[in-house]
Amino acid sequence: VMEIDEASVLKREAYLLFYERIQ
Q1: CA neighbours within 13 Å on the CB side: how many for 1?
Q2: How far apart are the first and last CA of the chain?
Q3: What is the model's pLDDT at position 12?
Q4: Which domain of life is it from (predicted)?
Q5: Strands annotated E in 1-23
Q6: What's 20's DSSP letter?
Q7: Mind listing the pLDDT tens digit of every residue in the chain (23 residues)?
C-alpha cells in the first residue's frame, strides 16, 4: 500500500507541474 501511495503522490506532483507549465 505504501508503494502505491508514493507512486500516487509522485503522479499528482507531476500532473500539477505539467498543469502549471501549460498555464
Answers
A1: 0
A2: 33
A3: 95
A4: Eukaryota
A5: none
A6: H
A7: 667 889 999 999 999 999 999 98
| Closest C-alpha among 5, 3, 9, 7 to residue 17 | 9
Report in angstroms the alpha-carbon separations of 20 from 3, 6, 12, 14: 26, 21, 12, 10
pLDDT value of position 3: 78
Q: What angle do CA 19, 6, 22 make, to 5 degrees?
A: 5
Three-state secondary structure string covering the chain: CHHHHHHHHHHHHHHHHHHHHHC
CA distance linking residue 17 with residue 9, whole number of Å? 12
